[in-house]
Design brief:
The chain is an alpha/beta fold and about 325 residues long. It has 11 helices and 12 strands. The strands form 3 sheets. It has a 6-stranded mixed beta sheet with strand order 7-6-8-9-10-12, with helices on both faces. Strands 2-1-3-4 form a 4-stranded parallel beta sheet, with helices on both faces.
């Protein structure tokens, strides 16, 4: 790796003083001509200079930090990953910097670059990759840029751009859900998915439908948001079209909870008339009525493992640390009527 570009290098390239470069970077309002400002900005761009916005450089071992980017910190899945990350970071004397991208792919990439400016040791991506060519291209460029700065990028969900990941088998989750429901005699399903472009969602649906196809089972799929509202509206639409469906698989628990609400409002008995299974095992799942049967995912463990991976000297660029999921049987799944 080449020598890290310093503010002194920028000043030399722009033929000005370090103090002037600092004033322009910090936008302190000091009078600077447009020509000089343009020259300094060009030098910053040409040299690829990124200011160290922390008081000390990570490599000095005086201050250490890591970055975590979640899609929505208010969603329990991401909160649990954040808990695992922050607890592991704290045990290592690290400061975690947590960003919530509001499910905006562009903002997610902007946060990655911003965290690199803060000299983090690594950036953890809690959300899965988006199926979008422009997003993939920009992510490839950003990951390469961060690696060039010795900033490791770790995934806690499947990514199209190669990177080390702490992962569950999302296709396996879908297959496991089908196997449980099929064992209860179900063969006609509603599959309620989240965002169609989300890689975790696609893999779970793929695992379910491939297993269903092998058994000659039938299904209808509705993609949308990972939300209660989507689960409610999607199941309403599917059952209006095909009331003979006897089981619902939701690719996350929030969708499943919306489906349960719809069935309760419309006098459909669960699981006597129709079974419902979720994915994730959110904190409220045991307290719904009926209690939600679901595939439990180890969110805190994924977050903790991702922090450990940042500091693993033997980590490869495509290392995967696998985690198992387990079926939690409660009250919302039963035999086919």
């Amino acid at each position: 790796m080449g020598k890290q570009v310093s503010i002194k290098d920028v000043a030399l390239r722009a033929s000005t003083s370090i103090a002037t470069v600092s004033r322009i970077l910090n936008n302190v309002g000091y009078p600077v001509s447009d020509e000089l400002r343009t020259r300094v900005e060009a030098a910053i761009r040409d040299l690829g200079y990124r200011p160290n916005r922390m008081a000390q450089n990570l490599r000095s071992k005086q201050t250490q930090s890591i970055g975590l980017i979640v899609r929505d910190i208010s969603v329990s899945y991401f909160s649990l990953i954040a808990k695992g990350v922050t607890e592991e970071a704290s045990s290592r004397g690290l400061m975690p910097l947590v960003c919530s991208s509001k499910r905006n792919p562009k903002l997610e990439i902007e946060y990655m670059r911003l965290l690199a400016q803060y000299q983090v040791a690594g950036v953890i991506l809690a959300g899965a990759s988006w199926e979008d060519p422009d997003y993939k291209k920009r992510m490839e460029e950003t990951v390469a840029d961060l690696r060039a700065q010795d900033v490791r990028v770790i995934g806690c969900a499947p990514q199209e751009v190669p990177m080390p990941c702490a992962l569950v088998d999302n296709a396996g989750i879908g297959k496991q859900a089908f196997d449980v429901l099929h064992k209860y005699g179900h063969s006609h399903f509603a599959i309620l998915g989240g965002e169609a472009a989300n890689m975790s969602n696609r893999l779970r649906i793929q695992g379910f439908t491939q297993a269903a196809d092998k058994k000659g089972a039938t299904y209808k799929i509705a993609a949308g948001a990972f939300s209660w509202e989507h689960g409610h509206a999607a199941l309403s639409a599917i059952l209006a079209e095909d009331p003979a469906i006897t089981a619902v698989y939701a690719t996350n628990d929030h969708i499943a909870l919306g489906a349960l609400r719809y069935l309760e409002e419309n006098g459909r008995s669960v699981p006597e008339e129709i079974s419902v299974m979720g994915t994730g095992d959110v904190a409220v799942a045991p307290y719904t009525f009926p209690a939600l049967s679901t595939i439990k995912m180890p969110f805190e463990e994924l977050g903790s493992a991702a922090v450990k991976m940042i500091f693993d000297p033997n980590l490869g660029t495509d290392t995967v640390v696998p985690f198992k999921c387990s079926y939690v049987e409660r009250e919302s799944v039963g035999p086919r009527p």
